[in-house]
Amino acid sequence: MTVSAGTAGRPRNLVLAAMIFAVAMTFIDQTIVSIAVPQIQRELGLSSTGVQWAVNAYLLSLAALFAFGGRLADTVGHRKMVVLGVLLFAGASAMCGLTPKGGAAEAWIVTFRAVQGAGGAIMFPAALGIVVQTFALRERGRALAIFFGIAGGLTAIGPILGGYLTEWTWRAIFWVNIPVAVIALILIWLSKPVTEHRPAPMDYRGLALIVAGVGLSVFGFQQSQVWGWGNPGIGLCIAAGLALLVVFFFVERRTESPLIQVDIFRIRAFLVENMVLGVAMLVFVPVFFFASEYAQIALGKSASQAGLYLLYFFLGFVVASQIGGRMLDRGGAKRPVTLGCALSAVGFALWAGKVTGLDFNSQMWYVILAGAGMGFMLSPASTDALNRASRLSYGEATGITQTVRNYSASLGLAILGTILVSQFRSRILSSLLAQGMPHAQASATASAISQSSQGGGSGNTSTIPHFIRLDFAYATRGVFYTMAGIMAVAALVALFGLERGRQADPTEEGPGAPADVQGGAAAGPAAPGGADGVGDGGARLD
Fold first, then answer.
1. What is the DSSP secondary-structure string of 236-265?
2. How many other CB atoms sit within 10 Å of the CB of residue 513?
3. What is the per-residue pLDDT for 213?
4. CA–CA separation, 312 vs 110, rounded Å?
5. How far is Cα 261 from Cα 482, in angstroms, rounded to an integer?
6. What is the pLDDT of residues 332-372, one digit of tens each?
7. What pLDDT, on the 0 to 100 scale, is given for residue 276?
8. Number of neighbouring beta carbons within 10 Å of residue 257
9. Rg value, the chain, Cα
10. How many whole angstroms separate alpha carbon 539 and alpha carbon 198?
11. How does pLDDT run across 385-423, given as a tens digit for each residue?
């Protein structure tokens, strides 16, 4: 049975609003907790490792379970998985806010942060799949530009909201998710989105391999700043995780009903868009952490003021994402994706050149430019990747792209964090030696100060000496220049990897028309049993 997108009398804009509210929580929680870390650690008496995992457990669980969430959406039903994910996420948020003081605090908050991540991993692919199936191909770029524009903006708003809420109580940063979840559930009930799915058995062997592979390697990246890159455990975790992912790839190719149809990577545009997203996400999530630290440490801003600093990045992002979505609908993905990556590279390079002046006004337009570049590329790249999947595998395709994005974000935080710490330590050491401090004492002091900078600051930076602020600014400059180089690489991948022209909608071109004008490949891999369209009798409606 075939149902075209946007039919059945469902108000499409209401569906879009419902899905935006549903995923809003996941984006806010990527960054909101980092602002409240000092208060959480102080009130609950958490160890340094414990507070690190209060942040990392969410991201690790989210990254490891995205593929599982995408498969569930396609086989069980998108609307069911969105509702389940919202309930799971909101329930875990409430429990995080109720974390008791005492010996159980650390295990409690880390556990429920991981449950939050699991809820997000179940919810997000299903929500995005609903949006994709609700809007026709020619309208999808604009719809997903709104979706990703608001979602990306919420990542930036997280630190702002967190800064204000923690002035009342850090527990409010978790409780704020509950009214958002209630609104999302009401909108889902009102809009009653209809999508298609195909029941299929779950590939538990593939699930175990990808969860272990992503989990181990992301764990290694996350712990690099705690244990140090010299610890053999870091290399062992990353190597073991990558090896399991290689095993996963070959196992999936031989599995009758796999967790992920890995043959989807034979579609050139899907492969290239994921390469672009993978490179760009080394920068996109980390920039919020490092810019927030720079604002607090180098510029002496409060936590809430640091959040406002990031608003300029968001302003550029949200405006450009709308333009990029329309460019995708009119002429295909290559132009907005390549242009966005190039603009972002230029923006980060110019921004880096101004951070050592410790004057935000001189940086403002470059912050906006960097954000605009990200806005131009992120929505079109993500949308174009999803457009390559068949209607019955949108959740799976979302699971793949989001796994790539979160994996790269974890890698970016680890690599860029190492660059920041090493350069900050080197600058402080030079400054202390210039002041006449003995080398051994200066080295120990520099190491202690550079490590204490991680975690978003203490919320009281007014007593930081000027030379430390300047040294941190120089370290941040190195990070931003690295970000500029990364985005230049993404621009080259898009320029030489993507092909010009719009993707054709096979439902508009007629039977037998090619589904991918740009790449010459089918719109998605054949579904289990040989069916690759929506007319299969095994398809079900949510």
1. HHHHHHHHHHHHHHHHHHT-SS-SS-GGGG
2. 12
3. 92
4. 32
5. 34
6. 899 999 999 999 999 999 999 999 999 988 999 999 999 99
7. 96
8. 15
9. 23
10. 5
11. 888 877 657 777 878 888 888 888 878 888 898 898 889
Residue indicated by tokens 């996350």: 222
Question: Is the domain defined by 1-195 classed in CATH 3.40.1280.10?
Answer: no
Confidence of residue 9 (pLDDT cuts 50, 70, 90): very low
DSSP 521: S
The tokens of 353 are what? 């050149």
SS in 3 state form for 80-131?
Answer: HHHHHHHHHHHHHHHHHHCCCCCCCHHHHHHHHHHHHHHHHHHHHHHHHHHH
262-502 has the same fold as 1-195: yes
**Alpha carbon distance 158, 167 (integer Å):** 14
User: Is the pLDDT score of 483 beyond 60?
Assistant: yes
**Ramachandran area for residue 436 (φ above 0: left; ψ -120 to 50: alpha; else beta):** left
Q: Is 10 left (phi over 0), alpha (psi -120 to 50) or beta?
A: beta
Residue-level pLDDT at 7: 40
Average confidence score pLDDT of the chain: 82
More confident residue, 87 or 443: 87
At 8, phi and psi to the nearest 5? Answer: 65, 15
Assign a CATH topology to domain 262-502: Growth Hormone; Chain: A; (1.20.1250)
Cβ atoms of residues 285 and 155 within 8 Å: yes
Tell me the whole-structure pTM to 2 decimals: 0.80
Q: Does the pLDDT of residue 463 top 80, yes or no? A: no
Helix (H) or strand (E) holding 197: strand 196-197
- Local structure of residue 192 (DSSP, 8 states): -
Indicate the DSSP class of residue 502.
P
Every domain of the chain and the residues it spans: 1-195, 203-258, 262-502
For residues 151 and 24, the answer to whether their CB atoms sit within 8 Å is yes
Max alpha carbon distance in the chain (Å)? 80
Q: Which residues, in sequence order, are CB contacts of 22 under 8 Å at separation 6+?
A: 82, 85, 86, 123, 127, 184, 188
Extract the runs of DSSP E, i.e. beta strands, from 235-361.
Answer: none
Contact 333, 380 (CB under 8 A): yes
Q: Which residues is 541 bridged to in the sheet?
A: 196
Higher pLDDT, 1 or 167: 167
For residues 67-74, average pLDDT: 87
Q: Which two tokens stand for residue 102?
A: 């005492």
- The residue assigned the tokens 């179940």 is 122
Spatial neighbors of 411 by CB under 8 A, at least 6 apart, are 221, 282
Start-to-end CA distance of the chain, whole Å, equals 13
CA distance 528 to 200: 9
